[in-house]
TrEMBL record:
GO terms for molecular function: calcium ion binding; mannosyl-oligosaccharide 1,2-alpha-mannosidase activity. It comes from the Eukaryota. Pathway: Protein modification; protein glycosylation. Keywords: Calcium, Disulfide bond, Glycosidase, Hydrolase, Membrane, Metal-binding, Transmembrane, Transmembrane helix. This is alpha-1,2-Mannosidase. It is an enzyme of class 3 (hydrolase). It catalyses: N(4)-(alpha-D-Man-(1->2)-alpha-D-Man-(1->2)-alpha-D-Man-(1->3)-[alpha-D-Man-(1->2)-alpha-D-Man-(1->3)-[alpha-D-Man-(1->2)-alpha-D-Man-(1->6)]-alpha-D-Man-(1->6)]-beta-D-Man-(1->4)-beta-D-GlcNAc-(1->4)-beta-D-GlcNAc)-L-asparaginyl-[protein] (N-glucan mannose isomer 9A1,2,3B1,2,3) + 4 H2O = N(4)-(alpha-D-Man-(1->3)-[alpha-D-Man-(1->3)-[alpha-D-Man-(1->6)]-alpha-D-Man-(1->6)]-beta-D-Man-(1->4)-beta-D-GlcNAc-(1->4)-beta-D-GlcNAc)-L-asparaginyl-[protein] (N-glucan mannose isomer 5A1,2) + 4 beta-D-mannose; N(4)-(alpha-D-Man-(1->2)-alpha-D-Man-(1->2)-alpha-D-Man-(1->3)-[alpha-D-Man-(1->3)-[alpha-D-Man-(1->2)-alpha-D-Man-(1->6)]-alpha-D-Man-(1->6)]-beta-D-Man-(1->4)-beta-D-GlcNAc-(1->4)-beta-D-GlcNAc)-L-asparaginyl-[protein] (N-glucan mannose isomer 8A1,2,3B1,3) + 3 H2O = N(4)-(alpha-D-Man-(1->3)-[alpha-D-Man-(1->3)-[alpha-D-Man-(1->6)]-alpha-D-Man-(1->6)]-beta-D-Man-(1->4)-beta-D-GlcNAc-(1->4)-beta-D-GlcNAc)-L-asparaginyl-[protein] (N-glucan mannose isomer 5A1,2) + 3 beta-D-mannose. Belongs to the glycosyl hydrolase 47 family.
């Protein structure tokens, strides 16, 4: 009893309640005040906050270096390539990839020496004749033999090997490269033995049979059109041409009404229709979207079906998958999926998605986005067979100058890709981050912010586009967990996968943006990334994936993917070269950075192959 009395006397809640009562404040008053505050907060976060916030830019000075400085930087990239390739030759060739920490090797892509084949055109661009000649002697002896029951992954083999052979052929006209490409394209063809004509995951090249699940990821079933089209062109073989025309036909006729005109991630290889509603430009989807524009450009802008697909996919992304982060107003692209009858966004932002800004910039450079009637299209009519909300989205996009809009999207996204590197103590970018959005944080789509920016008189740069400094209060040098959490919170994202995998997508976009805009800031950002690679990823024999980019002195992983030589170093080299040695109007990069030449089908070819 005594205990209860004492408890009531000393309990702070009871004391506070008595004090309130003495002042004439009832529980109802308190409840009302509480509810009113919650309502105000909700209003603030969901409406006022993003209607009153402007989207200011930081003032950042990018020095105008002399051409000699940039050429010297290109030379440093060439030396990095030589370091990596010589390490591969010394410790791994003729196996697929070098293990750059242990000086071992690994056969992870059929064991045909993928690093050598993937590197051919980079060597040609860099003028590395001795290395090229040594690689070519292996290609002369290559017969693609394998033990029975080996599964050859179709997608990776096409983009790395076939793309590498075709690109080197385009640059040299050397017949042996065409012969090897033809042989490879032919032994991979059983992959197409599905009812839909979309390729299966892998091929047993000895038995001539296809393998793999009944369902395929979008990127894997729809990223070979460029390679097979060019292979058909240079071999004059209808069977190769048929592969890419079937893909275009399948994709163009797929039922996309409920997906807003964008291709979802998973497909049934029998019916040729999508099996989920997961919309993404990241892993398992990326290059299929990329090939819509690139196939159109490579075949001299004749293939309107691919142009339509590109415009539908980018329109859906601009309207529905791009968001602005709450504090720093970072522009990013994420995924959506159906969840309990509604649409949910993950707010993940993948390094793999960082190809998108480059693709958008390439579209700006090559397409008459504001005069699509010149290429026989009407922009808003592209949404005629979509749902009314999607049609409205097209009309909103059309209320802007489309060229400006696509370029702003490209610039804002590329800046965020770069900042995910610059924000880290290593200067290297994580593989996946999660943006703060939803819940207490407002979920602001980019187009909502753009409409508001327009209504308010277009003051300052468009949302997410103005220059931004890297995150200074990175919280990494504090052991106080709360400080760290607060800092990360204000940074607007946390890191979900902290590995830097030597991937190319960010520097690829920096390179294309530099060529399209001529703005040196893209070069400076690329230079910062190259220096970080030299500092953190270099090993005595090559370059290695880096484990935790958000820590000081991270460990390295014993992996050097062939795409580091085929793509990452190539794009950095091209970014710093003064001379534009791969003009974007004459060459189109496949998804593994192998440039293929723009070509036109002749009248006879069109008739023979049934190309419209
Ligand atoms: C590369 O092999 C290709 O760019 C592919 O399309 C996806 N990503 C890897 C590198 O990140």
């Amino acid at each position: 009893m005594n205990f209860s009395v004492n408890f009531l006397r000393t309990n702070p809640a009871v004391k506070a309640s008595a004090a309130f009562r003495r002042r004439g404040i009832s529980i109802r008053h308190l409840a009302f005040t509480f509810a009113f505050s919650i309502a105000l907060l909700t209003l603030y976060y969901n409406y006022l906050r993003h209607t009153v916030v402007p989207f200011p830019a930081d003032v950042i000075h990018y020095p105008q270096e002399t051409p000699e400085v940039w050429e010297a930087r290109a030379l440093q990239v060439k030396n990095a390539f030589l370091h990596a390739y010589h390490g591969y030759e010394r410790f791994a060739f003729p196996k697929d990839e070098l293990c750059p920490v242990s000086n071992g090797s690994i056969d992870n892509f059929n064991g045909w020496g993928v690093t050598a084949v993937d590197s051919l055109d980079t060597m040609l661009m860099m003028g590395l004749q001795p290395e090229y000649d040594r690689a070519m002697s292996a290609i002369h002896n290559m017969n693609f033999s394998l033990p029975i029951n080996t599964r050859v992954p179709f997608f990776e083999t096409v983009i790395r090997y076939l793309g590498g052979l075709l690109s080197a052929y385009a640059m040299t006209g050397d017949d042996i490269l065409r012969t090897r490409a033809d042989q490879l394209g032919t032994i991979l063809a059983p992959a197409f033995n599905t009812s839909s004509g979309f390729p299966s995951f892998s091929v047993d090249t000895v038995r001539g049979t296809s393998n793999g699940p009944k369902f395929g990821g979008l990127a894997e079933i729809a990223s070979y059109q460029m390679e097979y089209a060019y292979l058909g062109k240079i071999t004059a073989k209808k069977e190769h041409v048929d592969r890419f025309t079937a893909a275009t036909h399948n994709l163009h006729n797929a039922e996309l009404r409920k997906y807003g005109g964008m291709y979802p991630m998973h497909w049934d290889l029998s019916s040729g229709q999508a099996t989920d509603a997961h919309l993404s430009v990241g892993a398992a989807s990326d290059s299929a979207h990329e090939y819509t524009l690139k196939q159109y450009l490579m075949t001299a802008r004749q293939d309107t079906a691919n142009l339509e697909m590109y415009l539908r996919f980018t329109s859906h992304v601009l309207n529905n998958l791009m968001f602005i982060s709450p504090n720093r107003h970072l522009l990013y692209v994420t995924d959506s999926n159906l969840y309990r009858g509604g649409i949910r966004h993950t707010h993940s932002f993948e390094h793999l998605s960082c190809f998108l800004p480059g693709l958008l910039a390439l579209g700006v450079h090559t397409l008459p986005l504001n005069h699509l009637e010149d290429v026989g299209l009407n922009f808003t009519e592209l949404a005629d067979d979509l749902l009314p909300e999607h049609k409205m989205g097209y009309e909103e996009l059309a209320s802007f100058n489309l060229t400006d809009l696509h370029l702003w999207a490209a610039e804002g996204l590329a800046q965020t890709c770069y900042l995910t590197y610059a924000d880290q103590p290593t200067g290297l970018g994580p593989d996946i981050i999660s943006m703060r959005s939803g819940g207490l944080y407002p979920e602001i789509t980019w187009m909502e912010a753009m409409q508001e920016w327009k209504i308010k008189g277009r003051r300052g740069p468009p949302p997410g586009v103005g220059d931004k400094h890297p995150w200074a209060g990175d919280g990494n040098n504090t052991t106080d967990m709360l400080d760290r959490e607060i800092s990360i919170d204000r940074r607007d994202y946390y890191i979900r996968d902290s590995q830097y995998q030597l991937r190319p997508e960010t520097v690829e976009s920096l390179y294309i943006l530099y060529r399209v805009t001529g703005d040196v800031k893209w070069r400076h950002r690329g230079w910062a990334i190259f220096q970080a690679i030299e500092r953190e990823a270099k090993t005595p024999s090559g370059y290695a994936n880096v484990k935790m980019v958000d820590t000081y002195h991270p460990e390295q992983r014993d992996v050097m993917p062939s795409y580091f030589l085929a793509e990452t170093l190539k794009y950095l080299y091209l970014l710093f070269r003064e001379e534009d040695i791969v003009p974007l109007d004459e060459w189109v990069f496949n998804t593994e950075a192998h440039p293929l030449p723009v070509f036109e089908w002749t009248k006879e070819e069109k008739e023979a192959y049934g190309i419209p």
